Amino acid sequence: MNNLALSIPMFSQGIPFFHAGDDLLRSKSLDRNSYDSGDWFNRLDWTYNTNNWGVGLPIEGTDKWDIFRPILANSTLKPDSTQIGDAASVFKEYLQIRKNSPLFRLTTEEQVSAGVTFFNTGPEQIPGLIAMRLEDVENVDPNYDEILVFFNANQQPIQFTESTMIGKAFTLHPVLINSVDTVVTHSAFDPGTGAFSIPTLSTSVFVLED
Q: Would the CA dihedral through 37, 60, 70, 88 be positive or negative?
Protein backbone atom coordinates (compact mmCIF):
# COMPACT_ATOMS: atom_id res chain seq x y z
CA MET A 1 0.00 0.00 0.00
CA ASN A 2 2.88 2.39 0.76
CA ASN A 3 4.38 1.74 -2.67
CA LEU A 4 1.03 2.36 -4.35
CA ALA A 5 0.48 5.61 -2.45
CA LEU A 6 3.93 6.99 -3.28
CA SER A 7 3.63 6.05 -6.94
CA ILE A 8 0.74 8.49 -7.46
CA PRO A 9 2.74 11.71 -6.89
CA MET A 10 5.82 10.07 -8.43
CA PHE A 11 4.12 9.49 -11.78
CA SER A 12 2.07 12.70 -11.80
CA GLN A 13 2.99 15.82 -13.74
CA GLY A 14 4.84 18.67 -12.05
CA ILE A 15 7.31 18.39 -9.18
CA PRO A 16 6.42 15.55 -6.79
CA PHE A 17 6.65 16.22 -3.05
CA PHE A 18 7.66 13.49 -0.62
CA HIS A 19 7.94 13.67 3.14
CA ALA A 20 11.32 12.68 4.58
CA GLY A 21 11.33 8.95 5.20
CA ASP A 22 8.38 8.09 2.96
CA ASP A 23 10.64 5.59 1.21
CA LEU A 24 11.63 4.00 4.55
CA LEU A 25 8.08 3.38 5.83
CA ARG A 26 8.77 6.09 8.38
CA SER A 27 6.33 6.21 11.27
CA LYS A 28 5.74 8.79 13.96
CA SER A 29 3.63 6.41 16.01
CA LEU A 30 0.38 8.07 14.87
CA ASP A 31 1.67 11.54 15.75
CA ARG A 32 0.11 13.71 13.02
CA ASN A 33 1.63 16.96 14.30
CA SER A 34 5.15 16.10 15.44
CA TYR A 35 6.73 19.55 15.10
CA ASP A 36 7.36 19.75 18.86
CA SER A 37 7.65 16.01 19.49
CA GLY A 38 11.43 15.80 19.33
CA ASP A 39 13.62 13.02 18.00
CA TRP A 40 11.78 10.35 19.97
CA PHE A 41 8.85 10.50 17.56
CA ASN A 42 10.60 12.03 14.55
CA ARG A 43 13.52 9.63 14.35
CA LEU A 44 14.70 8.53 10.90
CA ASP A 45 16.76 5.33 10.97
CA TRP A 46 19.09 5.18 7.97
CA THR A 47 20.21 1.67 8.93
CA TYR A 48 16.71 0.37 8.05
CA ASN A 49 16.46 -1.46 11.38
CA THR A 50 13.31 0.32 12.52
CA ASN A 51 10.67 2.70 11.21
CA ASN A 52 10.01 4.01 14.74
CA TRP A 53 6.59 2.43 15.12
CA GLY A 54 5.05 2.04 18.56
CA VAL A 55 7.52 4.18 20.53
CA GLY A 56 4.83 5.98 22.49
CA LEU A 57 1.48 7.75 22.46
CA PRO A 58 1.43 11.02 20.48
CA ILE A 59 1.52 14.21 22.49
CA GLU A 60 -1.57 15.54 20.74
CA GLY A 61 -4.83 13.65 20.53
CA THR A 62 -5.01 12.49 24.14
CA ASP A 63 -8.74 11.91 23.66
CA LYS A 64 -7.83 9.13 21.21
CA TRP A 65 -5.23 7.35 23.33
CA ASP A 66 -7.60 4.49 24.15
CA ILE A 67 -7.94 3.88 20.42
CA PHE A 68 -4.22 4.28 19.73
CA ARG A 69 -2.91 1.98 22.50
CA PRO A 70 -3.89 -1.40 20.99
CA ILE A 71 -2.88 -0.26 17.50
CA LEU A 72 0.58 0.85 18.60
CA ALA A 73 1.00 -2.34 20.62
CA ASN A 74 0.27 -4.52 17.57
CA SER A 75 3.68 -5.89 16.61
CA THR A 76 2.39 -7.16 13.25
CA LEU A 77 2.14 -3.53 12.10
CA LYS A 78 5.87 -2.98 12.62
CA PRO A 79 7.93 -3.73 9.48
CA ASP A 80 11.25 -5.53 9.72
CA SER A 81 14.49 -4.36 8.12
CA THR A 82 13.89 -6.42 4.97
CA GLN A 83 10.50 -4.80 4.39
CA ILE A 84 11.95 -1.34 4.98
CA GLY A 85 14.80 -2.07 2.57
CA ASP A 86 12.40 -3.38 -0.06
CA ALA A 87 10.26 -0.25 0.22
CA ALA A 88 13.35 1.90 -0.30
CA SER A 89 14.33 -0.18 -3.34
CA VAL A 90 10.89 0.16 -4.92
CA PHE A 91 11.03 3.92 -4.39
CA LYS A 92 14.34 3.98 -6.28
CA GLU A 93 12.73 1.97 -9.08
CA TYR A 94 10.00 4.58 -9.32
CA LEU A 95 12.64 7.31 -9.49
CA GLN A 96 14.33 5.45 -12.35
CA ILE A 97 11.06 5.18 -14.26
CA ARG A 98 10.27 8.87 -13.81
CA LYS A 99 13.79 9.94 -14.82
CA ASN A 100 13.71 7.57 -17.80
CA SER A 101 11.00 9.52 -19.65
CA PRO A 102 10.27 13.24 -20.08
CA LEU A 103 6.61 12.27 -20.52
CA PHE A 104 6.38 12.30 -16.72
CA ARG A 105 7.78 15.84 -16.68
CA LEU A 106 5.91 17.78 -19.38
CA THR A 107 6.73 21.47 -19.13
CA THR A 108 3.68 23.35 -20.40
CA GLU A 109 -0.06 23.32 -19.88
CA GLU A 110 -0.50 22.66 -23.58
CA GLN A 111 1.74 19.58 -23.46
CA VAL A 112 -0.14 18.17 -20.49
CA SER A 113 -3.55 18.83 -22.05
CA ALA A 114 -2.51 17.15 -25.30
CA GLY A 115 -0.45 14.29 -23.92
CA VAL A 116 -2.17 13.12 -20.72
CA THR A 117 -5.50 11.30 -20.88
CA PHE A 118 -7.36 8.82 -18.70
CA PHE A 119 -9.24 5.63 -19.43
CA ASN A 120 -11.70 3.94 -17.04
CA THR A 121 -13.87 7.02 -16.57
CA GLY A 122 -17.63 7.54 -16.36
CA PRO A 123 -20.42 5.56 -14.68
CA GLU A 124 -19.16 2.17 -15.91
CA GLN A 125 -15.64 2.58 -14.55
CA ILE A 126 -13.94 -0.05 -12.42
CA PRO A 127 -13.80 1.36 -8.87
CA GLY A 128 -10.33 1.77 -7.39
CA LEU A 129 -8.49 1.76 -10.73
CA ILE A 130 -6.79 4.77 -12.33
CA ALA A 131 -5.66 4.20 -15.92
CA MET A 132 -3.42 7.00 -17.23
CA ARG A 133 -2.06 7.36 -20.74
CA LEU A 134 0.96 9.50 -21.66
CA GLU A 135 1.44 10.15 -25.38
CA ASP A 136 4.54 11.61 -26.98
CA VAL A 137 2.59 14.06 -29.14
CA GLU A 138 5.49 16.54 -29.41
CA ASN A 139 8.33 14.02 -29.82
CA VAL A 140 10.02 14.84 -26.52
CA ASP A 141 10.77 11.20 -25.65
CA PRO A 142 13.40 9.43 -27.78
CA ASN A 143 12.43 6.02 -26.40
CA TYR A 144 8.67 5.74 -26.03
CA ASP A 145 5.61 6.68 -28.08
CA GLU A 146 3.22 5.93 -25.23
CA ILE A 147 3.29 5.05 -21.55
CA LEU A 148 0.33 3.56 -19.67
CA VAL A 149 0.22 3.69 -15.89
CA PHE A 150 -2.32 1.70 -13.87
CA PHE A 151 -2.90 2.36 -10.16
CA ASN A 152 -4.88 -0.53 -8.67
CA ALA A 153 -6.14 0.18 -5.15
CA ASN A 154 -8.30 -2.94 -5.05
CA GLN A 155 -7.74 -5.96 -2.84
CA GLN A 156 -7.84 -8.19 -5.90
CA PRO A 157 -6.20 -8.24 -9.35
CA ILE A 158 -7.96 -6.29 -12.09
CA GLN A 159 -8.22 -6.98 -15.81
CA PHE A 160 -8.82 -3.81 -17.77
CA THR A 161 -9.58 -3.93 -21.49
CA GLU A 162 -9.15 -0.98 -23.83
CA SER A 163 -10.05 -1.69 -27.45
CA THR A 164 -7.90 1.13 -28.83
CA MET A 165 -4.82 -0.69 -27.52
CA ILE A 166 -5.46 -3.86 -29.56
CA GLY A 167 -2.48 -4.75 -31.73
CA LYS A 168 -0.03 -2.47 -29.93
CA ALA A 169 3.24 -3.88 -28.60
CA PHE A 170 3.05 -2.67 -25.00
CA THR A 171 5.49 -4.28 -22.57
CA LEU A 172 5.99 -3.92 -18.84
CA HIS A 173 8.54 -1.20 -18.12
CA PRO A 174 12.08 -2.70 -18.08
CA VAL A 175 12.64 -1.53 -14.51
CA LEU A 176 9.55 -3.40 -13.28
CA ILE A 177 10.29 -6.66 -15.08
CA ASN A 178 12.82 -7.49 -12.35
CA SER A 179 11.25 -5.39 -9.60
CA VAL A 180 11.96 -6.03 -5.94
CA ASP A 181 8.17 -6.06 -5.63
CA THR A 182 7.52 -9.48 -7.15
CA VAL A 183 3.77 -8.81 -7.23
CA VAL A 184 4.08 -6.18 -9.96
CA THR A 185 6.18 -8.50 -12.13
CA HIS A 186 2.97 -10.42 -12.86
CA SER A 187 1.52 -7.44 -14.74
CA ALA A 188 0.70 -8.43 -18.32
CA PHE A 189 -0.78 -7.21 -21.60
CA ASP A 190 -2.57 -9.19 -24.31
CA PRO A 191 -2.29 -7.31 -27.64
CA GLY A 192 -4.92 -9.57 -29.18
CA THR A 193 -7.67 -8.36 -26.86
CA GLY A 194 -6.26 -5.10 -25.49
CA ALA A 195 -6.49 -6.52 -21.96
CA PHE A 196 -4.15 -5.41 -19.19
CA SER A 197 -3.72 -7.58 -16.07
CA ILE A 198 -2.96 -5.46 -13.02
CA PRO A 199 -2.02 -7.18 -9.72
CA THR A 200 -3.66 -6.28 -6.43
CA LEU A 201 -2.59 -3.08 -4.63
CA SER A 202 0.05 -2.23 -7.19
CA THR A 203 1.17 0.25 -9.81
CA SER A 204 1.96 -1.11 -13.27
CA VAL A 205 3.75 0.86 -15.98
CA PHE A 206 3.61 -0.30 -19.60
CA VAL A 207 5.62 1.25 -22.43
CA LEU A 208 5.31 1.36 -26.21
CA GLU A 209 8.70 1.86 -27.80
CA ASP A 210 9.31 4.17 -30.76
A: negative
